[in-house]
Amino acid sequence: MCRSIKTLREPYADEVTGDDVRAAALQYVRKVSGFRSPSARNAEAFERAVDAVAAATQTLLDELRIKQTSRS
């Protein structure tokens, strides 16, 4: 679906920033809504959606249990 969204969990990403999470959320909302840049009357709903998706993404990343592999 959103090919420009990169995988944010370990081991694919070592350090994930809030900007990374927000960028992924923005790409998702753009794809789902069909708007690259919403009109003024849709901007508030668009931004709320980005915030909600970013929060859900961060919660998911925080709660994932990743199997630790030994590095030699």
Features:
72 residues, single chain, 2 helices, mainly alpha
Radius of gyration based on Cα positions:
15 Å
Summarize the helix and strand pattern as letters: HH
Number of helices: 2
> Beta fraction of the residues?
under 5%
Intertermini distance: 36 Å
Oligomeric organization of the protein chains: single chain
Uncertain segments are none
InterPro entries: DUF2277 (IPR018735)
Pfam family, one: DUF2277
Organism: Streptosporangium becharense
Protein name: DUF2277 domain-containing protein
Account of the 3D structure:
The chain has 72 residues and is mainly alpha-helical. It has a domain at 19-61. It has helices at 18-33, 40-63. This is DUF2277 domain-containing protein. InterPro entries: DUF2277 (IPR018735). Pfam families: DUF2277.
Question: How would you concisely characterize the structure shown here?
Answer:
With 72 residues, the chain is mainly alpha-helical. It is built from two helices and no strands.
Please specify the SSE layout and strand pairing.
Elements: H1 18-33, H2 40-63
